[in-house]
Amino acid sequence: MSADLVNIAYLIAASLFIMGMKGLSHPRTAVRGNLMGALAMFIAIVVTLINQKIIGYEAIIAGIILGGAIGAIWALKVPMTGIPQFVGLCNGFGGGASVLVAGAALVEATILTSISAISIQFSIATVASGLIGSVTFWGSLIAFGKLQGIVSEKAVRFPGDHVLKALLLLACIVIGVMIVNDPGATHYYWIMIAIASLLGILLVVPIGGADMPVVVALLNSYSGTAAAATGFVLSNNVLIIAGSLVGASGFILTSIMCKAMNRSLANVMFAGVGGDAPGGEPMAGNEIYEGKVKTTTAEEVAMLLDSARRVVFVPGYGMAVAQAQHAVRDLTNLLESDGIEVEFAIHPVAGRMPGHMNVLLAEADISYDKLKEMDESNASFEQTDITIVIGANDVVNPLARDAAGTPLSGMPILDVDKSKTVVVIKRGLSPGFAGIPNPLFAADNCLMLFADGKQAIQDLTTAVKEA
Questions:
Q1: Which of 10, 48, 65, 194 fits a 20 to 30 Å CA distance from 58?
Q2: How many domains does the chain have?
């Protein structure tokens, strides 16, 4: 393949990457944007393999069929509740690939090229790719474990952990400098990878479930940055462009998520947020809940809905676990047929990954126009007759707004307690990811409907029809 054709193909792929990223910025164009990105990656991979004459056409076709089949089956088999873990693993695979490709390129260069001919750019890019890729891979595995419940969701800390992480990072930098000075000593690269792998584990273990959406976004940024560094290793322009786009967009998304949680990036990555109150003991909810929690039934809520004019749903991870989004859509349609205004208040960090609730509701064909961001929703809660919270906890916890010294303090929340009536659908009074009680459940205007999310909405739909 001629150099001109390769450059044209790379230009087309880069343009598709950019347009695809633009499409992903809005739910209406997200599917088209995703397809553009997939097509761009397909073009980039095929053209690179053909141009470099790495493998024959038969192997390329076989790889496309096999890889496509694995990806399609995996994507179809993973439930919506498992999408955050799925995304986390994909981030990890990107980082792992960068480590192996950069390492292979370094070994190849030392064998086929004189050491003096290896450029500083190549050496620095190799070190960056290996370091960032290793942190991404192992950090993503820990994030997967936390999301899957294999690893404790709590922030796991130990004395001197910050000092240890600083020393590990310093060791990686020192070894990286040694690699740049002597690229022929390839064993230094794998030593750095081992140390960076431990660093990746220790960076994510202290982060609790409350910050998982930020971690997923940050690891996505890391994987893109590692890919861009690998692009410099291979002198591959389209990989540099694609990696830079992913790295930059992931970092911007991380900044947005940190703002939504009122945290700095350093606080999330190094301080950790988990299930303990200051002092290390879990906060007790007995004194908050005892004698104050009011339970209700689907029939009672249906009676309240009969006189309502504005209803707002607040979805949370519990809705994802119960797979209640389709039942919510049916109830929404029923309420709207009765002339009730229905909207959805979406907190940026609801669920376990950025946009988790938007994805669930879009799957149920709920109109994008009904999905309102936090600031817009907070401005209208006082005019809301009934707010129905489905499986959300931390994002509606007034302690974040009213108390200091809790794992949630300072995090902007959905002010659902300002609604005339709040109905919370949960299985019980268990705390959210942050591990602290929620005074909303004991508020005067709050009614607790204890049930599985999907079953509760279905019962509520039946009761509304019969009311």
A1: 10
A2: 3
Q: Is residue 281 part of a domain?
A: no
Q: How far apart are CA 220 and CA 226, in angstroms?
A: 10
Instruction: Read off the pLDDT band of 332 (50, 70, 90).
Output: very high
Sign of CA dihedral 407, 401, 372, 444: positive
Give the phi and the psi of residue 373 in degrees, each rounded to 5: -75, 165
Asked if residue 71 and residue 96 are part of one domain, the reply reads: no
Last residue of a domain, one of 77, 110, 139: 77
Contacts of 251 (CB under 8 A, 6+ apart): 218, 221
User: pTM of the predicted model, to two decimals?
Assistant: 0.77
Q: What is the pLDDT of residues 176-233, one digit of tens each?
A: 999 999 988 889 999 999 999 999 999 988 887 667 778 888 899 999 999 999 999 9
Q: What is the pLDDT of residues 374-406, one digit of tens each?
A: 989 999 999 999 999 998 988 999 988 888 877
DSSP conformation letters of 309-332: SEEEEEE-HHHHHHT-HHHHHHHH
Residues recognised as catalytic: 394
Domain that holds residue 154: 85-271
| Residue from 422, 397, 415, 416 nearest 407 by CA | 397
d(CA 438, CA 441) in angstroms, rounded, equals 6
pLDDT in tens, 145-166: 888 878 877 777 788 888 999 9
